[in-house]
Each structure stands twice: as C-alpha cells, then as structure tokens.
Specification:
mainly alpha
Length: about 140
C-alpha cells in the first residue's frame, strides 16, 4: 500500500524537521535546553497522532466506497444470474415433461403394436399432428 509508505515517510520527515528545528533554535550546551528540546520534540506527537487517525478515517471511507460499489455490482450480477437460472430451470422442466410424455407415448405405441390396434396408433398420431399445428 503506497498510502501507508507515504504516511510513514511524511511522519518521519515531520519528526526529523521538528528535531532539526528544535536543535537549531535551542542551544544545547545547558541541561535545561536538552529537556526543552525533548519537550518540543514530543509536542509534535499529538499532531502526528491526529494525522494518523485522519489518514485511517480517509482510508476507511475509501474502502467503504469501494465495497459499496462492489456490492451494487454483485447485486446486479446476482439479479442477471437469477434471471438466467430461471430461464434454464424452466427449459429443463419443459424438457423433462417432453421426455416423460415421449417415454409414455413409446410405451403406449408398443402396447398397441403388440395387440394389433393400428387404428388407435393412427388416431393418436393424427391428434398429435393437430395439437402441434400441422407441423411437417
């Protein structure tokens, strides 16, 4: 994550500049000034903490925005897939009914052939032709 590296680099630069500025301003030859230098250096810590929290909140907002966009995309994809699934399922159900009817029709024809009822077979085939719209 380049943002994390950038944040830590900026924090290090701020601390280094603060220390450099304090060393330049303070005269380090007395013990009082050394403790003052430390106090000035650590006074920047709340600022860095604020920047860190602000950075974290911005990153969380970016992540939330990304996840919301991703969620809406996945929801649209789910709706499309649901429509596809319903179409496939209805086609499968129709093919199941056709296979079931064809199996029973074959059994019926076989029974009529064995018993010699050719007129019944002819009647059923003519009725089937009428139901399917005289398709040739």
């Amino acid at each position: 994550m380049n943002g994390n590296k950038l944040f830590f680099a900026a924090s290090a630069i701020i601390l280094a500049l603060t220390l450099t500025t304090n060393v330049y301003i303070a005269r380090l030859y007395s013990p009082e000034n050394i403790s003052l230098l430390g106090a000035r250096f650590f006074i920047t810590m709340p600022s860095l903490l604020f920047i860190a929290i602000l950075y974290y909140l911005v990153r969380q907002q970016q992540l939330h925005s990304y996840l919301a966009t991703r969620k809406s995309y996945l929801e649209r994809l789910r709706q499309q897939e649901k429509a596809n699934f319903e179409h496939i399922y209805s086609t499968w159900q129709a093919s199941r009914r056709i296979r079931h009817d064809a199996r029973h029709m074959a059994l019926l024809f076989t029974e009529y052939l064995h018993s010699g009822q050719y007129e019944e077979i002819r009647r059923i085939l003519l009725e089937l032709k009428q139901r399917t719209g005289n398709a040739s």
